[in-house]
Amino acid sequence: MTRLDSAIRRLTAQRDLLDWAARAIGPTGLVLEIGLGNGRTYDHLRARLPGRDIHVFERAPAAHPDCYPPEGYLVVGDLFDTLPPFTARHGAGAAALIHIDIGSGDEAANASLARRLAPLLEALLRPGGILLGDRAFPMPSCRDVSAETGVPEGRYFVYRRET
Q1: Which domains does the chain have, with CATH numbers?
Q2: Do the Cβ atoms of 26 and 93 come closer than 8 Å?
């Protein structure tokens, strides 16, 4: 598979899963976009979930000018510094949906980052809440529902917080 084919497959999976999750989550709860990048998935989320509070986390914002969240919804800084106070402010179990796409080309570093972030993300998910991620996250209170989404195995990872 070429790198172009791989990128198309990844973007298609992202779009399909964001659409699926927008239909699958409950009517309340925060939506978190972790890793703004150029803003494509944030833009998609705000179009699919109008009226929902979407908080965006980014270490170094550099998105397309049309793809920035409104004032007060962009959290800038390292996730290990910003997620704990966010959780304290909004409460554990505040998020109905978390989309996280922050990996690099270094798979060992990605796996380590996912292990370290998993407890912080798991604490934010409400019962029935969904996490979509570009990698596997070890979260004991969540069930891997990736196979239920129709996205090819290993392309993207989907977890639902158990009730």
Answers
A1: 3-161 (3.40.50.150)
A2: no
